[in-house]
Amino acid sequence: MNQARATMTPYRIAVRIAEPAFWFTCLLLLWQVLVRALDVPLFVLPAPSDFLYRIVTDHQRLLHEGLITARLVIYGFIAGAIPGVVLGYLIANVRLFEQLLYPLFVFIQGMPKITLAPLMLVWFGYSTFPKILLTAMITFFPVLVDSVAGFKSVDPRLYYLSRSTGASRWQTFWKIQLPSAAPSIFSGFKITIVVAVTVVIVVEWLNSNNGLGYIVLRAMDAHDTALIFATLVVASMIGVLLSYAIVVIERVAIPWRRH
Q1: Most buried residue, 44, 125, 138, 239, by most Cβ within 10 Å?
Q2: Nearest in space to 68 (alpha carbons), one of 244, 189, 169, 200
């Protein structure tokens, strides 16, 4: 059984990569044919060949600004995810935190936080701190909700077992609570990392002088639609790579979920 599973693993990986790549290529070909057949102006909707060509010609600029954006995404994600997990644990295990903090976080989540970008520009200027802070604020709540759900889903019988064996609070957390909540936490991570990419692009568009969002802003001023689409493709690639990175970390951290 293990040998068959091992021999099938490369095939399954190839199928998972090839099938979506095939349908995505078909979509691009259909897009290309329709734009050329309908003679759509370039400034309205570029053909895939137009913005893919811009990725090649402007690859140095897109790579440089893309690395800046990716760094902000990672910093903002970490700054929002770590407090989300910690507070999720406290809310799930301490009734006082659940009664006081959770309604407050729900209230704050209802605020349109992206509108704080101009205000943060006044407070902090064009530094990286306001972009990281705003990204952390937006990515914090999904991680918090999934963390609370994960820690609350622990089987109560496991607590009786830990008490009967004389386990400390830290041992109970490390051996029982965290492994039980890890699938829900990583589910929140995978959703949040993609949201973080979108947030950083929007924040850079409103309050930045570098990054992919800044390229989009400058391309809008120049009516360079092909460059806008090229930038969006690069941003999507960053989201895909970071999402797969979370999946790899999840497989290493909770190997029992692989099968």
Answers
A1: 138
A2: 200
Q: How many angstroms separate the CA atoms of 164 and 206, rounded?
A: 56
Per-residue pLDDT of the chain (259 residues; tens, 9 = 90+): 444 444 456 777 677 777 777 888 888 899 889 888 888 887 888 888 888 999 999 999 999 999 999 999 999 999 999 999 999 999 998 888 888 888 888 887 777 777 777 777 777 777 788 888 888 988 899 999 999 999 998 888 888 878 887 778 888 888 888 888 999 999 999 989 998 998 888 888 877 788 898 999 888 888 889 999 999 999 999 999 999 999 999 988 888 766 5
CA distances in angstroms from 115 to 14, 109, 144, 206, 219, listed in the order given:
43, 13, 22, 10, 22
| CB burial string 47-77: b at 16+ within 10 A, e below | bbebbbebbeebeeebeebbebbbebbbbbb
CA distance 98 to 32: 53
One-letter amino acid at 167 equals A
Angle at 101 between CA 95 and CA 107, to 5 degrees: 135
Q: What's the fold here for domain 43-257?
A: MetI-like fold (1.10.3720)
Length of the chain, please? 259
